Task: structure prediction
Amino acid sequence: MKPNFILFIFILTSFSFCTNEKIKNDDKKKISKKNATTNTKQLFGLWSVNCNPAERNIDIKESSVVISMETNQYYITLKELKREKNKIYYQYEKMSGLGAQDYDSPAYSNNETVCTIEIVNDELLKFSWLGLYDKELKERFEKENPFNQYEKTVSLKKCSD
Result:
């Protein structure tokens, strides 16, 4: 009778271990799916490195992004080019503001990707800057990331409205 009892305990603990591992794996899948399927409307609003009002930020709207290049001086508006899973590609649309006339050119309006935004979750984005593209010169310029000139990709946090 003792060997049957020991066998019963072994089977019971093995079943419990397998069930716990399955639950852990299911939880990981749910978290991963949640991060990958973030509701687009939850992305709308201001994002920046530290959410300091004096620093550069981006304002995500329905199908565009506005980058505050110099607060109250000029802004770059980008429009959505395409979307793949949790990554959005943007192209140049226009510049506006007091200092925009010094930089804006029709040569910048093209279908080249100027930045990508990778959605990590509802509170964190990865912003990668490629630079503006001049279709007449066939080259990129302003290649430094507006948030950190030494990094191509920076993390942006969602700021409270």
User: Anything to note?
Assistant: The domain at 40-158 is CATH 2.40.128 (Lipocalin). The chain has two domains: 1-37, 40-158.
